Amino acid sequence: MMIYEHFSVVGFCNTYVIGPENGGPAILIDPGHVDNELINIIEKKNYKLDTILLTHRHKAHTQGVGTLLKIYNPKVYAYAANVLDFKAIRIRGNEILKCGDIQIRTIHVPGHSVDSIVYKIGQALFTGDTLNASRISSTIGYMEQHILIDQIEKKLMSLPDNTLVYPGHGAPSMIGNEKLFNPDLSERTASKWVQSKHHS
What we know:
Helix content is about 25%, strand content about 30%.
């Protein structure tokens, strides 16, 4: 499995293309903006765009979908499918999706928005705005921030330390790094991790 990152100056958003090493059915995550560079990744790798995954409905992560639907015929998956301007398949957390031989697990992590979904593909997490390198995403209030931190701790920090984190903005990270160096996560997460290391 190969992962290609495309940076969009529209919304400063990361878009990811995931597919087999030698071409075939491919996945695209969060098409914030479609340009020649993104199309070239798909075409030059001999990919058939089969699946579009949306981490949440904010425009910086979805506004390229319409253009892609004019070029390709992919399935589009989103938690808030009913409020989007295009046809999408509604998903929930803890579902398993397939794209060719690639398996995708959905993880619902509300907080930044009620429809935020993280996708686990192999040892990689595609987190949208939920979790970035060394920080969590913004929320509209204290209660939402508390929910977000609680959900990240329960659903993401429990994953292996070598799990790769591919965020919607900024550089990639790893779960182990976030346990140690993310100041937005509670001290409880760090202390749990340190205690587990001492007892292992």
